[in-house]
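User: tokens in, sequence out, please.
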């Protein structure tokens, strides 16, 4: 592999890596041109994260070599990667929450024999970098008080301060709002214009088409294609990722909604002394998907958690079938499950799984006291294992190893474990938060099909997603939520990004009209 001018900023030759019987990377060749934004896409489990972990020194390749600016390098840890001019922004940020932005950036690179002198030097350099690349951040504010978009800027500043000229971003938009994503793309374009080489790991084809110069496709541990972005299409890349054509449209059965299964009346949720949900009213009928659209952080999470019995609500009421729930007559999540409600939480790591648990153990969380799993003294291991095997086959959870720790599954397969658990409980009402967050296109197609199958089977579904395409694809009715308020409603037939965007942008006017 040779670049036209004879040299790549980053080149991989014959990189292979095994984990036991699994060949995560299989003879990978990759060339990244200097000053390009180069995308790497592939399904979860395709080997993308393993590959960038080798580049950044978290793993050592079993075979192959790496070159930077045409010179062979050996990178066995992140310190060596940083010394070679490589920086990485991880999907889950590596920041100390109660440290300020400045302290986080200084950590491990204080810059002087005296801390005060080092701080002055770091601050001056960061101000220079911020002005050059549009990376302004409040340096003296604790990270925990900053938005995820600003935290990501801090991670980029950390890498640039350490003189990175090759910047790896792993799923950088997975936790960002659309506005923050736009801001990130502006920053990346500025970095590219200054000669920084960017390696972008993502599963979002729209982002690949919007921001990259070149794209490489991985499937089952192999590099299967390399394209100039201008000479390919989202449809071709999708097919290369999964090895088959992806359906562009989801089959929707025409059916009238049935009886109302969930009725929410003037619900108010106060969390940490802030009114997160403000007198929200909505209903969900049998055979209906009601979607809630909006920018993350506008009360959707608290609404779902209150309905699932995780957060208390301070005013209003909820009618679930024949059961009325009020602030004085609360129901626990266990009691709500017994009444026919299931909940797929937005954060599968914090609320959906216990990551150190084996897959078959996380697959019964919340249901472990049921007689089919529990004989009062011990859990019925053989039943749990057999049931998990059936679910893994039905939901195509890979790998099939039921005893593998949940932390060792890709994001898409972790999500399938949660979805299989809640869907197979056969609820009448499903609460689903961000069903495809951090999930690749093949798994997205499968998850959407499963959600639609539940709808067609007469379940009532309340769906929260920040992905407008997802909401418009799945929902029969769409509610827009902003600042804790429902600010608009539109039917599936009438929904488009412009109308939803206007409702989101004009939330205050809509609410007061």
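Assistant: Sequence out:
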């Amino acid at each position: 592999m040779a670049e036209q001018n004879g040299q790549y900023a980053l080149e991989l030759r014959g990189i292979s890596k095994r984990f036991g019987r699994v060949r995560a990377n299989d003879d990978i060749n990759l060339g990244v041109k200097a000053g390009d934004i180069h995308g790497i896409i592939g399904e979860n489990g395709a080997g993308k994260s393993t590959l960038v972990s080798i580049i950044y020194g978290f793993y050592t390749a079993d075979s192959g070599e790496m070159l930077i600016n045409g010179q062979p390098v050996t990178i066995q840890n992140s310190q060596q990667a940083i010394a070679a001019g490589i920086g990485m922004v991880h999907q889950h940020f590596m920041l100390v929450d109660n440290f300020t932005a400045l302290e986080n950036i200084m950590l491990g690179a204080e810059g002087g024999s005296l801390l005060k002198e080092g701080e002055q030097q770091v601050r001056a350099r960061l101000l220079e970098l911020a002005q050059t690349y549009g990376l302004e951040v409040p340096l003296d504010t604790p990270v925990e008080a900053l938005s995820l978009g600003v935290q990501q800027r801090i991670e980029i500043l950390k890498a640039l301060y350490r003189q990175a000229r090759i910047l790896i971003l792993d799923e950088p938009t997975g936790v960002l709002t659309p506005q923050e994503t736009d801001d990130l793309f502006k920053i990346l374009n500025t970095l590219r214009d200054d000669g920084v080489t960017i390696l972008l790991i993502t599963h979002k084809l729209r982002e690949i088409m919007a921001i990259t110069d070149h794209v490489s496709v991985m499937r089952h541990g192999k590099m299967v294609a390399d394209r100039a972005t201008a000479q390919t299409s989202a449809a071709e890349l999708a097919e290369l990722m999964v090895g088959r054509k992806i359906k562009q449209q989801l089959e929707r059965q025409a059916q009238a909604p049935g009886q109302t299964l969930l009725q929410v009346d003037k619900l108010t949720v106060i969390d940490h002394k802030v009114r997160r949900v403000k007198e929200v009213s909505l209903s969900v009928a049998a055979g209906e998907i009601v979607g809630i659209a909006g920018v993350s952080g506008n009360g959707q999470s608290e609404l779902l958690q209150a309905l699932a019995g995780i957060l208390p609500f301070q005013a209003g009421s909820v009618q679930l079938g024949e059961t009325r729930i009020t602030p004085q007559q609360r129901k626990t999540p266990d009691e709500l499950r017994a009444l026919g409600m299931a909940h797929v939480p937005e954060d599968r790591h914090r609320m959906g799984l216990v990551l150190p648990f084996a897959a078959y153990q996380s697959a019964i969380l919340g249901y472990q006291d049921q007689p089919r799993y529990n004989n009062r003294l011990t859990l019925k291991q053989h039943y749990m294992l057999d049931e998990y095997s059936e679910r893994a086959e039905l939901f195509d959870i890979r790998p099939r190893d039921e005893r593998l720790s949940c932390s060792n599954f890709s994001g898409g397969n972790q999500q399938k474990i949660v979805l299989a658990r809640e869907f197979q409980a056969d609820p009448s009402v499903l609460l689903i938060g961000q069903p495809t967050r951090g999930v690749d296109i093949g798994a997205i197609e499968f998850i959407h099909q499963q959600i639609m199958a539940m709808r067609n089977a007469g379940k009532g579904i309340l769906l929260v997603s920040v992905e407008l395409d997802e909401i418009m694809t799945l929902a029969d009715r769409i509610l827009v939520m902003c600042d804790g308020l429902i600010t608009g409603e539109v039917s599936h037939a009438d929904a488009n990004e412009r109308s939803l965007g206007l409702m989101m942008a004009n939330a205050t006017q809509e609410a007061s009209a």
